[in-house]
Here is the input.
Amino acid sequence: MRILRIGMSGTDVMEIQSLLKKMGYYTGAIDGIFGSQMQSAVINFQREFGLVPDGVIGANTYRILERYLLGYDLYTLHKGDTFSNIAKRYYTNLPLLMAANPDLSANNLPIGKQIVVPYGMDVVDTNISYTYDILERDLLGLKARYPFLEIGVAGSSVLGKNLYYIKLGSGPNQVFYNGSHHALEWITSPLLMKFIENFSKAYTLGQNIGGYNPRQIWNQSSIYIIPMVNPDGVDLVLNGLNPTNPYYKDLIRWNKGSTDFSTDWQANNRGVDLNHNYNAAWQQSKDAEATYGITGPGPTRYSGPAPESEPETKAIVNFTRNHNFRLVLAYHTQGQVIYWDFMNMAPPEAKIIGETLARISGYSLDVSTGIASYAGYKDWFIQEYRRPGYTIEAGLGKNPLPISQFDTIYAQNLGVLLYAATV
Ligand SMILES: [Zn+2]
Here is the structure.
């Protein structure tokens, strides 16, 4: 964590703006720019928490902010404590508190034991640039609040970042959702993360979600989610090129001499378009490169030197092979379309399910053409398993879609994510 002060900008500033707003200290724009309004908010926060009110976010201030970013406190039980008075003191919900401490019995709290107390507010923010660091912190927060979640690592990126997976449910019907194959399409990561949070919350509180009973889905299905397939690419788009990146010079060359990756970069850290790197008509994808002026690594559409040449692609393939997925959804953002087939290999039911997904989301159902129709994840899945696999192109407009589209995209896809787990 770097020290933050007035005049600085970045995704880390934005994350804290969002938190201070959620906590009622800040009313300005969530724009990632540390201005005077944010400085006043930080000073007020510091006063409230007994810190030196200098308006600078150093180690001591960050230590307290981080607790709120994670979404829970660690509390040591005292004599006379009860779950309900702890919940009241933290403005949190009793069932959420109990879910975070499944080993404790409410009428026999062991004095001196440290427990997890979830704050009343949610963890996953949907109004900010969603970086890998934020994803990691949110996963720590969600795991502490909802220890029933299985969270693991399916592999790593070129730069060694974890490809996290989250499993919801314990039923025999396995499905797999993934997001952010394409770096500019990072809004699909908070889409899946918010789904995980809302599903877990509804499950804990015994509430319905999108008209479904989450406990029924939990028992029927196992929903595996990899929210960020391409964390290195997302970092390039949102945080820019770090001078310590071992591919620093190559990346600038592959980006046609530009150090700005924020509006064009879809690929991984080696300039390979991961959704053109799967072993499904890969050679056709390769042969089509010339038509699109692709001569090697670059921002988009380079299929790589060989199928599955990239660690991210290989990890997703292995993850798929190690499970028995009945259906997969690969999330992208380009024009509210659902693609359902690959070279006529999809089973007849895939079209019927696709029609329902289209009806739920309001998106159209189509068959992809041109270079986009080869070597993608859903293509490979359909080819290998002859089961329903979909590319869902959420949202409208030029990538990267503004985060202001989040609520619309979430509303269009909540029903899709639930239905796809049950069909
Ligand atoms: Zn895409």
Notes: The longest strand covers residues 150-156. Residues 11-68 form a domain with the Muramoyl-pentapeptide Carboxypeptidase; domain 1 fold (CATH 1.10.101.10). Strands lie at 72-76, 114-118, 150-156, 162-168, 173-178, 221-226, 327-332, 337-339, 364-366, 389-393. The radius of gyration is 22 Å.
